[in-house]
Design goal:
Belongs to the dTDP-4-dehydrorhamnose reductase family. Catalyzes the reduction of dTDP-6-deoxy-L-lyxo-4-hexulose to yield dTDP-L-rhamnose. It comes from Treponema phagedenis. InterPro entries: dTDP_dehydrorham_reduct, NAD(P)-bd_dom_sf, RmlD-like-bd. With 103 residues, the protein is mainly α. The chain has one domain. Helix 2 packs across helix 4. The longest helix is centred in the middle third of the chain and has 14 residues. The radius of gyration is 17 Å and the shape is flat. The relative contact order is 0.27.
Length: 103
């Protein structure tokens, strides 16, 4: 079963899984820059984005935040996938589905 975050939240409530910390995100890993590029590419292809623009990469140090963050991190979704017995969709596919809904 492929699900996204809202469906996972509903499943957690309905199935009353044990309390604790559960991590969830779509499968795959990507930088914020690459994510922005993919949004733009898919958005143009699906005719959701109509204007041209430049996406300029930047470093995390150019956007200081109060909370210290690692330069690279991924969420371990093993616990939520096991508890709900789910297959998590790839982020590109979910992005495409979301952009299609915007049309």
């Amino acid at each position: 079963m492929r699900v996204d975050l809202a469906q996972v939240i509903v499943s957690i409530i309905q199935k009353q899984i044990p309390t604790g910390v559960y991590h969830y995100s779509n499968e795959g890993n990507i930088s914020w820059y690459d994510f922005a590029c993919e949004i733009y590419t898919q958005g143009k292809h699906l005719n959701v984005i109509h204007n041209d623009c430049d996406i300029i990469p930047c470093t995390s140090s150019e956007f200081p935040q109060k909370a210290k963050r690692p330069s690279y991190s991924l969420l371990d979704k093993t616990k939520i996938k096991t508890a709900l017995q789910i297959m998590v969709p790839d982020w590109k596919e979910s992005l495409k589905n979301y952009l299609k809904e915007l049309r």
